Amino acid sequence: MAVATTSDTPAPGPVRTCVGCRARAAASELLRVVAGTDAEDRAVLVPDPHRRAPGRGAHVHPTQECWQLAVRRRAFPRALRSGDNVSGAQVEAHLRDLLTAHAPPSGSPQHRTETGAHSS
Ligand SMILES: [Zn+2]
């Protein structure tokens, strides 16, 4: 591969490539994902929003779209050398939290019945 020129990226700080859509973006806009193990010592993908975990990391836009793309392409096992059947459940949960924080669910589940309490 030829060396790409990076002089056309005005974003401050480090720039990373999203493993989902392959677009470059500031590292601060991407979610870093690292390889870890769960309680049963199986390989899992772990979200690293503060980008402090040591070792290899892969970056992805914190959206379902890019996450699904990356999973379908097996981008994480390739980038992290973590093995093919690595679980992404922790990252999925993290993304779900992020996305629901941005868009709270409409329609509250709580509905009180305030009718007919005092009849007869
Ligand atoms: Zn992306």
Order of helices and strands: EEEEEHHH
How far do the termini sit from each other?
84 Å
Strand order of the largest sheet: 4-3-5
| Percent of residues in beta strands | 15-25%
Can you give the mean pLDDT?
Answer: 85
Q: Structural class of the secondary structure composition?
A: alpha+beta
**Structural shape:** globular
- What is the CATH class? Alpha Beta
CATH architecture: 2-Layer Sandwich
Radius of gyration: 20 Å
Helicity level = 10-25%
Total strand count, please?
Answer: 5
Task: Compute the number of structural domains.
Answer: 1
Bound chemical compounds: zinc ion
Domain YlxR: 16-83
Region (Disordered): 97-120
Biased composition (Basic and acidic residues): 111-120
InterPro entries: YlxR, YlxR-like_sf, YlxR_dom
Can you walk through the features of this model?
About 25% of the residues lie in helices and about 20% in strands. The protein has about 120 residues and is of the alpha+beta class. It has one domain: Hypothetical Cytosolic Protein, Chain: A (2-Layer Sandwich), CATH 3.30.1230. The protein has a 3-stranded antiparallel β-sheet with strand order 4-3-5. A two-stranded antiparallel ribbon has the order 1-2. A hairpin with a 6-residue loop joins strand 1 (about 15) and strand 2. The longest helix is centred in the last third of the chain and has 14 residues, at about 90-100. The radius of gyration is 20 Å and the shape is globular. The mean pLDDT is about 85. This is YlxR family protein. Pfam families: YlxR.
